[in-house]
Design goal:
The protein is of the alpha+beta class. The chain has 21 helices and 31 strands. It has a 7-stranded mixed sheet with strand order 1-2-3-12-7-11-10, with helices on both faces. The protein has a 6-stranded mixed sheet with strand order 24-23-20-21-22-25, with helices on both faces. Strands 16, 17, 18 and 19 form a 4-stranded antiparallel sheet that branches.
Length: 771
């Protein structure tokens, strides 16, 4: 009569489950941690209400259509979709045929013809080797509006269940199929098979609003018992009680309700009178809420990896040990104060709400919450992050009853004890000794930062840059420079910024506010915009290297009208009217022969050393030049990353990993002459020459500027070259006074294959007058 089966349903102890045979071949499960009297009463109750269980589809009449019916409204703009029959393996087709026959015999399906909506079957294999027949209702779900009837919050439902001493875990038999479809919407559930098209007479699985319809039906049937005697989540029902006697009464009331509305249970998935059990991914019991061991089974059974060392394995074992001994969470009690622990870091925050136990000495955790800050939230100040953490936590804990209470006066000794219990381990007391007692005063540091305005201009007049350093006292220090190499406007902006930063570093400025009217340069230096132009990547790297010399530096966008001083210096136009009280120092003019990111490569070859001598020495011997600064060393190390040494030949590595041989000034001059006006020279422009030289496999630092200047100074190009935006010769209107006065002739050939008469050329003559 009674069969016992060992099944671990509690994480801290094993509970035996009894299989009770109500009839031959019809069994239900009950827990064994109940008294004999309760066990006897529970078996009698199950025998009395054995008709509420369904052992097959034929035992399930379904809910009355007067209580609930499922509708499928369709948006007017959506057109019906008829899917074509998919190909399947023969063995899968036979299993689907058996499932379709079983549901057809149970009255769930009916044959339909000429349906506007047709879906396909999707076979899903089960663990036991069987196949679950699912229907692809994605097209139908897209056309159907969403039913906004809410499902219960899982965390709230688990909190309301935990803490009770006795549970029964019940599941509806083929839950969704107990609700019937509306007559007008049955044909919308049509699916296609090899044996015809069928539609559902009951609500099938896979529809968008099936869960909402089932939850609405359960609320209508058990609304007076929910949250008091039972908890309901779709087709899962959990009766709960504090005593065994009360549990029998709750089950009797629930069984009467199930019998009244003919709602059937699945005996294979029901357990009655258990002390604990799994609920929505958690294990609930009188002790509280525990983690389900099946959730981390993959981590628990994971074997050692070959690439791990002993330290990694020890850390992994600690993680597994923590999961095996995870803390038990307690549901919140409304009559006890809530204790909230907040931990706020630079990029994340964590919260642990808890309460005291019955003794009042031990704290129990309720939740473990965490959140990663967004990019915007990371920029909050520490106090703002703390406030935000408190606000976010209170919103997440709305289901917990909390209120603000006025605190009474706290004695000073209590505050001192509180601070002493939370002393910092690395605390160092303040040093009040003042070594120079004879000093009469200490100069206050300047709180106001220096300001830098920069601007660059590249136009037909030339390439010039300008920058202005403004001290906290209002003194202006202007700088201007002429760029003796071709560059774009954005390159000129970077040159101006670099010149200003270098001037600030020479003056020992540590706090600087940089203003520029180029939004591209400003936002690239901020890191908000990506630098994609290859010509600007090296400039940005130079600026980032200079930023290490500052303690605090910011980049701000400024309108051109507000950047008149730097703009005037860059364009060398008329100066704006300055304040006579402000000191204006003389402008020093200098000329740069190469871009800023190549400033440490000297093209002038002195002592028979090429321009790449310092790079060659560093790559070969890892030695720096004599009497160089740390900034120059960093620049040399950065440049050397792109060079490869093969014997005594130095190569430059391109972005596509192609190696270019570095040449000195003598070889560069010969290469320029040969490429531009040599045997195969085409007198190309400077940019084309650069591409040709790099295609030939040569490189030097200033090759782009040298190619442009060489093409500009070529005598033959100036004499015979076409003018820009001007045709090579003057255009004239050709007049044809009479027919056959002028002809246009052309010859085509030889053609292949030959014509049928053996001809291989075609001669064409066109009269320009009749054209």
């Amino acid at each position: 009569m009674v069969k016992q089966e060992e099944k671990q349903i509690m994480s801290y102890e094993k509970e035996a489950i009894e299989n009770i045979a109500l009839e031959e071949g019809k069994e239900v499960k009950i827990g064994t941690l109940i008294t004999n009297d309760t066990r006897r009463s529970l078996i009698e109750l199950l025998q009395e209400f054995k008709d509420i269980f369904a052992w097959s589809y034929q035992d399930m009449p379904g809910l009355s259509t007067g209580i609930v019916v499922h509708r499928l409204p369709i948006r007017q703009e959506c057109k019906p979709v008829q899917q074509k029959l998919r190909r399947m393996r023969p063995d899968i087709v036979l299993k689907i045929k058996d499932d379709v026959k079983k549901q057809f015999d149970a009255g769930f399906l009916q044959e339909v013809k000429y349906s506007e909506w047709v879906a396909n079957i999707v076979p899903v294999p089960k663990k036991d080797g069987k196949v679950r027949m699912c229907v692809d209702y994605r097209d139908l779900n897209k056309a159907s509006p969403k039913d906004n009837f809410p499902l219960p919050h899982i965390d709230t439902l688990v909190d309301n269940t935990a803490g009770y001493s006795l549970f029964s875990f019940m599941d509806g038999f083929s839950g969704y199929n107990q609700i019937k479809m509306h007559l007008e919407d049955m044909d919308k559930t049509t699916f296609i098979t090899l044996w015809g098209t069928f539609c559902y007479k009951v609500m099938p699985f896979g529809l968008k609003n099936a869960g909402a319809t089932y939850q609405r039906a359960m609320v209508n049937l058990f609304h007076d018992m929910m949250h008091n005697d039972i908890e309901v989540y779709v087709d899962d029902m959990i009766p709960k009680s504090q005593t065994e006697k009360e549990h029998i009464e709750v089950l009797r009331r629930l069984f009467l309700r199930l019998r009244k509305f003919q709602l059937k249970l699945n005996p294979a998935k029901c357990t009655f009178g258990a002390r604990s059990g799994k609920l929505l991914g958690f294990v609930v019991s009188e002790k509280g809420i525990e983690v389900d061991s099946d959730k981390f089974r993959a981590i628990r059974e994971k074997h050692n990896q070959g690439t791990w060392d002993e330290e990694c394995q020890n850390a992994f074992e600690k993680v597994k040990q923590y999961l095996l001994n995870a803390p038990v969470l307690s549901p919140p009690s409304p009559d006890k104060p809530l204790i909230l622990y907040l931990s706020v870091f630079s990029n994340s925050m964590g919260y642990v709400p808890g309460q005291h136990d019955e003794s009042g000495k031990m704290e129990k955790a309720i939740y473990y919450l965490s959140k990663k800050f967004t990019d915007c939230e990371m920029r909050y100040s520490p106090i703002e992050k703390l406030y935000y953490a408190l606000i976010w936590t209170t919103r997440r804990l709305r289901q917990v009853r909390y209120s603000l209470c006025k605190s009474e006066a706290i004695k000073g000794s209590a505050v001192a004890d509180f601070l002493a219990s939370r002393a910092l381990e690395d605390y160092e007391p303040l040093n009040f000794d003042f070594s120079n007692e004879e000093l009469m005063c200490i100069a206050a540091t300047e709180d106001s930062p220096w300001k830098l305005n920069f601007d660059g201009a590249s136009n037909a007049v030339g390439n010039r840059i300008g920058a202005v350093l403004v001290s906290p006292n209002g003194d202006h220090y202007p700088f201007t420079c002429k760029l003796d190499f071709d560059c774009t406007n954005n390159m000129a902006e970077y040159e101006a910024c670099i010149m200003g930063l270098q001037a600030a570093i020479e003056r020992g400025i540590k706090t600087l506010e940089v203003y520029g009217d180029s939004d591209l340069v400003i936002y690239q230096l901020r890191g908000e915009w990506e630098t994609r132009d290859p010509k600007l990547i090296n400039y940005r790297m130079v600026v980032l290297g200079l930023l290490r010399e500052f303690d605090d530096i910011t980049f701000n966008y400024l309108l051109r009208d507000e950047n008149q001083m730097a703009d005037a210096l860059a364009t060398l136009a008329s100066m704006i009217k300055g304040n006579k009280e402000e000191e204006m120092r003389p402008i020093q003019m200098s000329v740069y022969e190469a871009p800023a990111h190549c400033c440490n490569i000297k093209e002038e070859e002195k002592d028979d050393n090429p321009w790449y001598q310092e790079i060659l020495r560093y790559v070969r011997d890892r030695k720096y030049p004599e009497q160089v600064t740390e900034n120059d060393k960093r620049t040399l190390r950065r440049l050397a990353c792109d060079y490869v040494l093969d014997g005594e030949v130095l190569y430059k590595r391109r972005k596509d990993q192609v190696l270019l041989r570095c040449v000195d000034a003598v070889e560069a001059k010969l290469i320029l002459e040969e490429v531009h006006e040599g045997v195969c020279g085409t007198h190309a422009n400077g940019f084309t020459m650069v591409r040709q030289i790099m295609r030939f496999g040569y490189y030097w630092a200033t090759m782009e500027g040298d190619c442009i200047n060489y093409a500009k100074k070529c005598h033959k190009c100036q004499i015979y070259g076409d003018k820009i935006h001007v045709p090579p010769s003057h255009l004239h209107v050709m007049t044809f006074p009479w027919p056959f006065s002028m002809w246009g002739m052309d010859v085509i050939g030889p053609i292949s294959p030959k014509a049928s008469n053996g001809h291989r050329f075609i001669f064409i003559a066109i009269d320009d007058f009749t054209k």
